[in-house]
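The authors assume throughout that readers already know how a fold can be written as discrete tokens. What matters is that the chain and its backbone geometry are given together, residue for residue. A single example would do more here than another paragraph of explanation. For illustration, here is how one protein appears when written out as sequence plus structure tokens.
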Amino acid sequence: MIRSRFLSTACLLATTLPAAQVLAADAICYNCPPEWADWASMLDAIESELGVEMPHDNKNSGQTLAQLLAEKDSPVADIAYYGVTTGIKAGNEGVVTPYKPTGFEEIPEGLKDPEGNWFAVHYGTLGLFVNVDALGGAPVPACFADLLKPEYAGMVGYLDPSSAFVGYAGAVAVNRAFGGDLDNFDPAIEYFQNLAENDPIVPKQTSYARVVSGEIPILFDYDFNAYRAKYNEDGNFEFVLPCEGSVVVPYVMSLVADSPNPETGKRVLDFILSDEGQAIWTNAYLKPARPVELPEEVAARFLPDSEYERATPVDYAKMEQVQAGFGERYLNEVR
């Protein structure tokens, strides 16, 4: 489900909205794809509740930032959605403007820019996506440390942290779990060196289907992928939030600077952070950014809130700054 943030400008041009579609819209959202995070239901709700029509838009985070930069002197979009590190870059580049929607103060610290240049609308949590039926009788692991045991040899997968963001997020989580921080990745390097003795599977791209098939019994991945399998696939799947703790990875939105329809953009952002808007994200098993009360049957899809207390934000700007350095260390010292 995680979408690459780093595509070329050539790909960007291929996804530009048709002019007729732009003219017909009441507002434009960049990167609101109907098949991701149930944006389809969100856009339908915005139209029915606010009377605001916004077209689907299949950009990804990197394409969105590239187009906002290209249109800086004459903006087309009113609001934008992207991964947190891209949202931080957009704020630094001056293509967004501060806005604090209703409910902004309820978003936990670390999941929003204090000035309102970007703010989380939902988030995922890094943990273990487990195909229980593929464990061959081994217990469901409870901790990152468990994966170093011989009984999990050949069963553990993680995306290459030198090339995949979810792989890097897993490395950041492991690093913190064993005492490291963004200035010191020695614990993560040592962990992956030790895990190498257990013959891990290290794909470079999203491997949801490989877990569902049982080829990878245990994968470092986001909770929403594990829940998707648990409630939509045949088989026995679980999400484990490791006992040592983990990290949350938010998806954020912004009001575009000098947008054509700023007041409409603000109304849409207010709705997205409302109780009704926040609940829509749970259709895709994403956790709402605000601590809204969910219907009992919806809340039951997730681990208890007490489990999620072990998953916390990081300094995402610094996380992005040190990513390349960690990738080099991983390639030199682990692979």
In short: The first strand starts at residue 29 and ends at 30. The beta strands are 29-30, 79-83, 96-97, 119-131, 156-157, 218-222, 237-240, 246-256, 287-288, 311-312. Residues 9-123+249-303 form a domain with the D-Maltodextrin-Binding Protein; domain 2 fold (CATH 3.40.190.10). The chain has two domains: 9-123+249-303, 124-247+315-333.
